[in-house]
Amino acid sequence: MAGQVTVRAAVASDVPVILEIIKELALYENEPDKVLATQESLHNTLGFKEGSKCYAKTLLLYEDDKPAGMALYFNSYSTWRAKPGIYLEDLFVRPQFRGKGYGTTLLATLAKEVLDIDGARLEWSVLRWNEPSIKFYEGIGATDLGKEWQQMRVDEDALKNLAKRGVFGDGK
């Protein structure tokens, strides 16, 4: 049976826990060596360092003061609907806390936030091999956009090369 459950916005002192959970998620996704995040980079990008910008927000779910799960997200925008939304970058519930409804609790908290900002949607990506998560998401009413949309990314060297191309009319 679940103990006392609390969901709250992360604060600066939570950064070590956020990094631990990010590393656990990477291990679950079979990519532990891909994590480049550090406590310092999280402080800088989650808006906890004075003068830094906030690029993403984090919700933490605690059971009896033990960190059980996390949702890291940022605002998105729908041009066709002219409304904001939320893009969920990462959702992770630690294995020992699964099956208690904590993933649903985190998603419901984000859904409420979308409604509070008069937003249009809550969206995220899921790895195709992650059948347990896909079934969970379908169970809460999520729609697979895979037949109509393909996710694209430019990073690392491709990102640097694209940036070097310049813009039309700049003489390059």
From TrEMBL:
Keywords: Acyltransferase, Transferase
Keyword 4Fe-4S: no
SUPFAM superfamilies listed in its UniProt record: Acyl-CoA N-acyltransferases (Nat) (SSF55729)
InterPro entries in alphabetical order: Acyl_CoA_acyltransferase, Diverse_Substrate_AcTransf, GNAT_dom
Domain of life: Eukaryota
Annotated Gene3D superfamilies: 3.40.630.30
Pfam families in alphabetical order: Acetyltransf_1 (PF00583)
Domain N-acetyltransferase: 5-166
Protein family according to the UniProt entry: Belongs to the acetyltransferase family.
Annotated protein name in UniProt: Acyl-CoA N-acyltransferase
Species: Tuber magnatum (white Piedmont truffle)
Biological classification of the source: Eukaryota, Fungi, Dikarya, Ascomycota, Pezizomycotina
